[in-house]
Amino acid sequence: MNLFDVYPLFNINIVKGFGCTVWDDKGTSYLDLYGGHAVISIGHGHPYYIKKVNAQLQQLGFYSNSVINPLQQQLAKKLGKASGYDDYQLFLVNSGAEANENCLKLASFKTGRKRILSASRAFHGRTSLAVEVTDNPQIVAPINDNHHVTFLPLNDLELWEKELAKGDVCACIIECIQGVGGIRMATKAFAQGLQAACKRYGTILICDEIQCGYGRSGKFFAHEWLDIKPDLISVAKGIANGFPMGGVLISPDFKAVYGQLGTTFGGNHLACAAALAVLDVLEAEKLIENACVIGDYLLTELAQMQLSGKHIVEVRGRGLMIGIELDIPHKDVRERLIDHHYIFTGCASTNILRLLPPLCLRKDEADRFLSALAEVLKA
Ligand SMILES: Cc1ncc(COP(=O)(O)O)c(C=O)c1O
After folding, report:
1. DSSP symbols for 148-190
2. How many CB atoms lie within 10 A of CB 54?
3. Coiled coil located at which positions (predicted)?
4. What's the confidence (pLDDT) of residue 73?
């Protein structure tokens, strides 16, 4: 059997990782500023994480959601405390798309409505509703194109308010920092205006924190920078440092109904052990503060590079979620960074480098990237 060939691949086989470094099967080491697509939050191969996941596996890997799982309760408590959402409820799933799928279902169940507002350039995943609110017709199959969604430019509050005033919108879904869309940021005025308009018209506000959340922006959630409090928050990626997991944080205004939501694997014992270990390490090693400090340093140095060098058009982002927009395609730049400097970066569109490193990135590692990028752009 062949693999279904949907991924354009680098010809590299990563076999080992530690911190922000990964090694291929030939023993070459790479600096990982991509974090396996923003998934590695506390760093590769963290000893505490390995110990906790291992210990849980020795005990019990999985049992279903038909019995009490104290690890889920511990996780809800710890996540509530870490995020400042103590009074919210937690529903655990397996991926980001599934988290958004459940957010949208909850919003529709609660309001009885079917329309959704989403942002231009948004990416929310590939399952049926998640892909429908994703602004990329190439990945929306005809069966998913059910005309539930109106796409509007991020930050154009007037347009969003006009649609909301029609009174038939169940949810607005936004990424406060768009990832796939190229690290584009919602403004405070937009986010606060949108929250107020949602309240006015009985619409649910969903923040997709799958990529920008869990400490990546230098605060636990990116929407904290904008001083808003969404009704529903979706999380995934960094939540379990590579163990497949997602979740929805649900405001106390939502009443749980037996059987309305469900999943076989979601919130299983092993996933919870991984997620608990992540929260322990984030706190013990002050990784969110580190993301803020190293992120600020990178943003400042990159802005300087934009002024003094060639090819950088704009630098955007917060914490360790950084977009470097170029006036040339990113393809050659990324290849040179890998081939000549052994540095992995992410990308967006055709001309944006996207940095999504583990949150434990050190200053010397940031410096290594800065000098490599300067050299590549000069060449
Ligand atoms: C903002 C955002 N939402 C949703 C998703 C989908 O997550 P998953 O691939 O885990 O389904 C992603 C994945 O890149 C994302 O960046």
Report:
1. -EEEE-TT-HHHHHHHHTTS-EEEEEE-SEETTTTSEE--HHH
2. 11
3. none
4. 98
Show the CA angle centred on residue 246, arms to residues 160 and 127, nearest 5°.
Answer: 60
Q: Which residue has the tokens 């509007």?
A: 152
DSSP per-residue codes, 260-274: TS--SSTT-HHHHHH
Query: With 0-12 CB in 10 A as exposed, 13-18 as middle and 19+ as buried, what is 161?
Result: middle
pLDDT digits (tens, 9 = 90+) for 75-116: 999 999 999 999 999 999 999 999 999 999 999 999 999 999
SS3 21: strand
What domains can be seen in the chain, in order of their start residue? 47-285 (3.40.640.10)
pLDDT at 309: 82
Confidence tier at 23 by pLDDT (50, 70, 90): very high
The two structure tokens encoding residue 145 = 């194109």
Q: How far apart are CA 188 and CA 298, in angstroms?
A: 23
Locate the ligand 1 atom nearest the alpha carbon of residue 98 and give its number.
11
CA neighbor of 209 nearest in space, from 217, 201, 198: 217
Task: Report the residue among 210, 233, 239 best suited for mutation to probe ligand 1: largest number of ligand atoms under 8 A from its CB.
Answer: 210
- What integer pLDDT is reported at residue 149 of this predicted model? 98
Pocket of ligand 1 (CB under 6 A): 95-97, 100, 123-125, 175, 179-180, 208, 210-211, 236
Closest to 368 (Cα-Cα) out of 341, 344, 339: 341
CA distance 223 to 315: 20
**Strand, helix or coil at 252?**
coil
Choose the residue to mutate in 7, 101, 123, 136 for probing ligand 1, maximizing ligand atoms within 8 Å of C-beta. 123
| Residue 100 CA, ligand 1 centroid: distance in Å | 9
